[in-house]
Amino acid sequence: MSDTDTETDAHTPSLRTPIVAVLGHVDHGKTSLLDKVRGSAVIEGEAGAITQHIGATAVPLEVISEIAGDLVEPDDFDLPGLLFIDTPGHHSFTTLRSRGGALADIAILVVDVNDGFQPQTREALEILQRSETPFIVAANKVDTVPGWNANEDTPIQSTYDQQSERVQGAVDTALYEIIGQLSEAGFSADLYWRVQNFQRNVGVVPVSAMTGEGVPDLLAVMMGLSQRYMKAEMEIDVAGPGVGTVLEVKEEKGFGTTIDTVLYDGTIRADDRLVVGGTNDPIVTDVRALLQPRPLAEIRTESRFERVDEVSAASGIKIAAPDLGDAMAGAPVRVVRDRPVEDVIAEVRAELADIAVDTADEGVVVKADTLGSLEAMADALADAEVPIVRAEVGDVAPRDVSVASTADDANERVILGFNVDVLDDAERRAEIDDVRLFTDDVIYQLIEGYERFVEERERAQQ
Ligand code: GDP
Known about the structure:
Elements: E1 13-15, E2 19-24, H1 30-44, E3 51-52, E4 56-60, H2 61-68, E5 81-85, H3 90-94, E6 106-112, H4 119-131, E7 135-140, H5 156-162, H6 165-184, E8 189-191, E9 202-206, H7 215-229, E10 235-237, E11 243-252, E12 256-265, E13 267-269, E14 273-276, E15 283-286, E16 289-293, H8 296-299, E17 305-308, E18 310-312, E19 315-320, E20 332-335, H9 341-354, E21 364-368, H10 371-383, E22 388-393, H11 398-405, E23 414-418, H12 424-433, E24 436-440, H13 443-461
Parallel strand pairs: 2-5, 2-6, 6-7, 7-9, 8-9, 21-22, 21-23, 23-24
Antiparallel strand pairs: 1-10, 3-4, 4-5, 11-12, 11-20, 12-19, 13-18, 14-15, 14-20, 16-17, 16-19
Helix pairs in contact: 2-7, 11-12
Bound molecules: guanosine-5'-diphosphate.
Guanosine-5'-diphosphate is lined by residues 24, 26-32, 88, 140-141, 143-144, 208-210.
């Protein structure tokens, strides 16, 4: 089944699938939850009913309704299903952008009931808050509460009601801890069955990505939230020029540099001209191939990918085209079709300018894996009153070291890299030039590491 099965009249507004991102601290169960949703969809659905995209999985309404049973009556909905961004963690949440068209429409924040809020949970919350993305909390691993009696066939509220008083007490303690922490962060939250308005209040759904308990409830809450409050945002012009966001920039054998893209409006065709946000100027290029994953059985000696002629929102697609070397994760992708290319370049430029980081004449060098994470780093550094001289997406390269090495103040002969690698040459160069490199995959730890360094230096000077 392809994305283009549904024939649509030209320029008739259609409702697209809401895009869902899964975020949370490492090991709290993001991957397991995505696997469970996919697994249940495969079991419940007709073969091929769910579509594996690049970087995303589409679960149609009928399949959601099979999984969720009475909780989702298909007749109550006209949204076509949910599209889950597959790469959990930093890649999905840091490409959520605060301005200029967000990538995800809804998010699931996964919190381990045993572990509660952790650094990446807080970081994810801040990003959700800034991007005003509605979200639901999956209080995961509820099966690990001692004495928990699993019942995969009832809604999680009934399963919870069936537990002994002691177990309920233990679950309550864990859940109210999470609800309390959400409230400290400025969100009014409650157990999902007590929430009336999911736009105003954050619903907390106890789940187990292992047993699958609570997954039907989670899907039902997301469908309800989207249908009730977000339908207007799902109206798109399917036949119009495609608009999307780069998820990842990847070398692909036989295709050169490709961009994994989530398309959230319109259509991309195999003969389209595109404008893509790059580290320097917007890139103007022509699609060489639109690629989707081939079913496993067909791969053998063939390429892992199958060429398609056209793809419509919302879906994930790999785009092969010349000159994509400078494309940035988190940057916009726009189809030119039937309008002046200058207009589209201007649109992409405006969108990039909106997420650009203000730099000063002096300060530290910042590198990050996506535009969204760069923006999050810049915000955190502004809060810590650390000026930035240069901020870019990409690994730490020798030219970053050159820039950092020009600083007079040793506190600014520094590169902070979030979720990026340091190229070998850059490491050698930094040693020679006496430039300090800090890297981490948690923003606040990265900044703390830097602040410790500054404090120690200042203490040593006294
Ligand atoms: P991620 O880093 O957030 O993607 O976390 P993973 O999905 O990799 O899960 C981390 C670990 O927790 C793995 O060993 C999983 O098997 C385990 N895990 C995840 N969800 C559950 C759950 O609901 N119950 C139990 N008992 N273990 C879980």
